[in-house]
């Protein structure tokens, strides 16, 4: 048996570094395969990783041909070292005798673009196959290379996530002793200033020596858009801290990749599913609401997506409190095909938005009943807070009044648009 060459050994090291052969498909990779097929108007497309003696399809579109043909052509593409095209498999010495060429489904055309790491190692390829011999256009191949680049970006995100998880696991030994310090590291030390918006947040822990899993953040996106989220992971202590760090990192990284709120939650779900795959530990899951703010005239357009989380509450300038709640929205990370719901709303001048975790609404009132969403809504309607800071103070007063009825941590994120004011010089309305 010949020894593996130095270049091949380096390539296989990269495959192992990215854990590419163990990569779960996920919606992003499936979309890449589907787009490749659409670009080429071909019935079959795959995303494959080439190991030392294994070729694994981590995503596929259409009914894939027999495994042997895919393995041999994908391995040949990696050996070739660049865009690889077989115009007519019947005329190709390596593929002509394959049953998938001679028989069903009758593959005649094959094109591949390499999935290449930043340091130039080929992990595998994005491939398309057709049942008719044909040429591959330059634009088609360029698109295929771009799709291979997107696959590499996804693997980079997953590698970074894996490294983050490993780092968090190393912190577990002293996690309980460092609870307060660690809790602070899981939350932004200060919220950024958003032009035309007021933002405030608070964390109300039940225990001073145990790390909770509630989280929130507000951060800039492209252009003048801003992303924000709030949620709650399962469990307490060091495991919850590690999971919280993973969730926060993934949400921010996913939002940079694609800020659509539904897509962000789907990406988080894929990461949590992969984190649990093949493990014996309890399934990691969370609830979350993710939103995007877009400045618009004297207010902000808001797009929200939720996964198993209580509804956000809009406190309008006229004192009306209304839930901003998409229909549905299931837990993140635990279901096979979860549904995440999305809705659009608007914050006008004088309006505020409250996001909170269920430690607030599941608190017990003096009568023994849960506060629930109706109780919180009624309390806010009576208090009529007019700003983000006032919302925080109102909720703080409520938690204080409930006392021992609060049995879980509560995170709060409040956003408000300053009320319109009349400028003496012009008499026109403008945001404060």
From TrEMBL:
Residues 194-417 form the PPM-type phosphatase domain. SUPFAM superfamilies: GAF domain-like, PP2C-like. InterPro entries: Bact_Sigma-Reg, GAF-like_dom_sf, PPM-type-like_dom_sf, PPM-type_phosphatase-like_dom. Coiled coil: none annotated. Keywords: Hydrolase. PANTHER family: STAGE II SPORULATION PROTEIN E, STAGE II SPORULATION PROTEIN E-RELATED. This is SpoIIE family protein phosphatase. It comes from Microbispora bryophytorum subsp. camponoti.
